[in-house]
Structure formats: C-alpha cells, structure tokens
Write a structure and sequence with these properties.
By secondary structure, the chain is of the alpha/beta class. Helices cover 36% and strands 17% of the residues.
C-alpha cells in the first residue's frame, strides 16, 4: 500500500522564485503527496541579507494562492531563536508520512545539522540533484550518509536551478511569478539595504 506523504520544503525564499515553485510541481508528479509545506526560515537563523519575515511569508502565500494542497508555515518565523529543522518537522508532523526536501549540495554538510541523527531516524529526506552527481554512489562513499542511505529518496533528473540570489543580483523578472514581482515593487524590496534587518 502506498502511504500518502506530507512533504516539507525549507529555505530562505528570499524571494520565492519560479524554481522554488517547480520543486512542488516536480514532486507532485513523482510522489503520492497530499500536503506540501513551504517552511521559510526566520531571520534568527542568522543568514545574511534576509528580508523581513513578513515579506517572505507574504510572497510565498501570494505565489501559492489557489493551491489547496500547499501550506506556508510561519513556525520558524515566529521562533525567538533557531531550533533546527528536526524540531520544526516534529511540530509539523501529522499522521502522514513526512519527508524533508534538500538539494544535493546540502549532503556534504548534513552531518552538522542540529539533531540530524534524530531527524534521519524519524523522517525521510528527499534529495534533488543540482550538480549532476551520481547521488547513490556519493552517499555510499560517505561514512555518515551511507549509514542513513535507506532514509533518502533521491531524484537525479531534477534540473531546475533554485537561486534567489540570482534575482537579488540581476532583478530578472523572468525568475519570479508576476504577482510576487508586483509585491516586490510595491514594497521596494531588494533595492539597496532597506529590506534587510
């Protein structure tokens, strides 16, 4: 029997791009998902140049409007300090099978994530190949990843670069859905330092 899935996709979404949205469309074709949650990280995470939490949340809500199987979770935006992905997944867990999405570039530092042993024991991890690696061989050769290899769901054919930084550098409107572009212009985001903490 196929177990329906709740898929969680975390990130800064600074801003959310068409490529971020493609992760949802791609995984909806590949897996029996019933719920897809975008999980924006809060400014307490300490990442440079993050625009305000409310703006990133609002842009995700605008981008995903009309998709009943998509949620945007504010839990990390509301946290007074960064608790780590494992704690967020525990709070989002319901009766469904839950998996967290990462890009293949995260594999090399995954062993340093907070509570990563608990996370990979209790939840699955969907890995999207961004660097044309042989993911199975890469995981097999790594002492940490190989131990948890049965917890990874790997997709080698996802080839849609996810880069909000490209938009911040170029302001290329082709990277963003039109309603989010309108929001960015209305609030004068990503133009100088007025948008960051």
């Amino acid at each position: 029997m196929v177990i329906i899935m709740h898929i969680v996709y975390g990130g800064s979404f600074n801003p959310p791009t068409k490529a971020h949205f493609q992760v949802y469309f791609y995984l909806k074709r590949k897996l029996p998902l019933t719920t897809f949650t975008f999980l924006p990280v809060g400014t307490v995470y300490g990442k440079d140049d993050l625009t305000f939490n409310d703006h990133r949340y609002n842009m995700l809500k605008i981008m995903t409007k009309g998709y009943d199987d998509i949620n945007v979770s504010p839990i990390e935006l509301n946290d007074p300090h960064f608790k780590g992905t494992y704690q967020s997944l525990k709070r989002l867990k319901n009766s469904k099978r839950l998996a967290f999405v990462i890009g293949a570039d995260n594999l090399k530092t995954l062993h340093r994530w907070k509570n990563i042993h608990k996370m990979l024991t209790e939840f699955e991890c969907i890995v999207l190949n961004r660097d044309h690696k042989d993911l199975a061989s890469y995981i097999e050769r790594d002492w940490f990843l190989s131990y948890y290899k049965h917890r990874f769901i790997m997709f080698n054919d996802f080839d849609y670069p996810v880069s909000a930084s490209e938009y911040r550098k170029t302001h290329n409107d082709d990277l963003i859905v039109p309603d989010v572009i309108e929001y960015i212009r209305k609030h004068n985001l990503y133009r100088g330092d007025n948008h960051v903490l």
